[in-house]
Task: structure prediction
Amino acid sequence: MFENLRNSGWAGVAVVVGAAALAPTIWPALGRATRPAAKSALKAGVVTAEQARERLAELGEAAEDLWAEVRHELDEERRAGEAEDAVDDGAERPATDAG
Result:
């Protein structure tokens, strides 16, 4: 008799019905047991997200500082190049005789 039950697929139905009958008593207990672990996981996620946000802000500040330094150096090089060009232009002009 039980072999026919097992082979006909009724065993799966019986397991589902049994689980459904026990769910109201097991589910709250399971929820109470897993709640501390879920809270710990969420706390770790929040802490990790905050640390990542802080590190990204620091990285952004460092990138901005580097950008400003590079712009400053380029401006200085450009001014020095313009000053050299002005000196060179004055030295290369041929003297004209107005005579």
User: Anything to note?
Assistant: The chain has a mean pLDDT of 81.
